[in-house]
């Protein structure tokens, strides 16, 4: 397999990986702290692969769409790594694929600034 197409090849800094995964960089750090994600490091910089980004999208699907907490996500991913289950088999595979490929829709803002710089709730 060409190293350019290898989904496990680390290539993205955290800011780019977060953008590609539809998450905040802090979210990726939290997932790492919780043992859900393990990016490679070079010179103390986190580098994420396509497989890492896919994993973040699956974690977000489980937490956002299915309401699973991070401890539950960890168990699900451990069972998947052992070959006991497949995330795609637990839920509607099409729904998982759509979420992973398209990401979740943008959430509407709950507050904004008016012309005077005051916060307004929506």
Helix/strand/pairing category: mainly alpha
pLDDT < 50 runs, ≥5 residues: 106-112
- Indicate the mean pLDDT: 84
What is the C-level CATH assignment? Mainly Alpha
List SSEs in N-to-C order: HHEEHHHHEE
Main beta sheet: 2 strands, antiparallel
CATH topology descriptor: Multidrug-efflux Transporter Regulator, Chain: A, Domain 2
* Domains, number: 1
Question: What's the layout of helices and strands?
Answer:
Blueprint: H1 14-21, H2 25-33, E1 40-42, E2 45-47, H3 50-65, H4 70-81, H5 87-90, H6 93-102, E3 111-113, E4 119-121
Antiparallel strand pairs: 1-2, 3-4
Helix pairs in contact: 1-3, 3-6
Keywords summarizing the entry:
single chain; 122 residues; mainly alpha; Multidrug-efflux Transporter Regulator, Chain: A, Domain 2; two-stranded antiparallel ribbon; 6 helices; 4 strands; 48% helix
Question: How would you describe the overall organization of this protein?
Answer:
The chain is mainly α. It has one domain: Orthogonal Bundle (Multidrug-efflux Transporter Regulator, Chain: A, Domain 2). Helices cover 48% and strands 10% of the residues. It contains six helices and four strands; from the N terminus they run H-H-E-E-H-H-H-H-E-E. The chain has helices at 14-21, 25-33, 50-65, 70-81, 87-90, 93-102, and strands at 40-42, 45-47, 111-113, 119-121. It has a two-stranded antiparallel sheet. It has a two-stranded antiparallel sheet with strand order 3-4. Helix 1 crosses helix 3 and helix 3 (50-65) crosses helix 6 (93-102). The longest helix has 16 residues, at 50-65. The model is unreliable at 106-112 (pLDDT under 50).
